[in-house]
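User: Just a sanity check before I run the rest of the batch. Below are the structure tokens for the first item. I only need the designed sequence back.
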């Protein structure tokens, strides 16, 4: 083998995918987060103005207070800095009510994808800004008797970090707790802020466009965008290529 061939092989090996990091809301779970944010708007602004597109662009993936402030600013609400605190508190109360009512479900394609990645022997982590993520993941019971949360080797959901997404801190922490170099990880995300965080951390980014928002995920830098995780070619992923499954 020539020197250049050895160098090329080392370059490929240094970027080989070996681990997965998953966002929760919108990727693994159909949760009532968006509904809670919308219903909590009453008294601040017309709830119908918080469309799914605005939620994905301004709120999804961000820490609670940051998301509240971003939503109020986008809606033109006066004094968004001051109003963000009561809005975030009202949203949290409504979210807890909805979770208690059972308004949480796992996406079937996500469960199949997690199982397929686990079959590769790769360690997996969950990484969500939401402090409610752990409780919701525990509600999902698998055929094995485990909760969905139990299948992940690392869990950094709801950690208090200096900066939220699009800062890569949460994903870098997940990679560290998986004992993986960030370059060996891919992140599955449904929000532009999360895609930006993954790319900022030197990781591959898999965009999950469940809300007709593929363009925004591509613009944020996703390496591949799918509407269902069933569309990801697992065989290619095992070879460190992020590709769509052939039709």
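Assistant: Here's the designed sequence for the first item:
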């Amino acid at each position: 083998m020539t020197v250049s061939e050895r160098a090329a092989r080392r370059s490929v090996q240094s970027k080989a995918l070996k681990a997965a990091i998953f966002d929760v809301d919108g990727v693994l779970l159909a949760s009532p987060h968006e509904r809670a944010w919308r219903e909590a708007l009453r008294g601040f602004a017309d709830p119908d103005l918080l469309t799914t597109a605005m939620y994905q662009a301004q709120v999804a993936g961000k820490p609670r207070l940051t998301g509240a402030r971003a939503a109020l600013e986008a809606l033109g609400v006066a004094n968004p800095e001051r109003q963000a605190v009561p809005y975030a508190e009202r949203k949290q109360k409504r979210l807890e009510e909805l979770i208690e009512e059972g308004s949480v479900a796992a996406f079937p394609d996500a469960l199949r994808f997690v199982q397929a990645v686990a079959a590769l022997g790769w360690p997996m982590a969950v990484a969500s800004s939401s402090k409610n993520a752990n409780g919701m993941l525990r509600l999902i019971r698998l055929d094995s008797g485990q909760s969905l949360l139990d299948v992940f080797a690392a869990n950094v959901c709801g950690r208090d970090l200096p900066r939220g997404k699009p800062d890569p801190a949460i994903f870098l922490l997940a990679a560290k707790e998986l004992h993986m170099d960030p370059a060996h990880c891919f992140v599955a995300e449904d929000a532009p802020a999360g895609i930006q965080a993954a790319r900022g951390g030197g990781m591959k980014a898999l965009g999950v466009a469940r809300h007709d928002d593929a363009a925004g995920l591509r613009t944020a830098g996703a390496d591949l965008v799918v509407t269902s995780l069933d569309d990801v070619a697992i065989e290619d992923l095992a070879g460190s290529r992020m590709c769509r499954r052939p039709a």
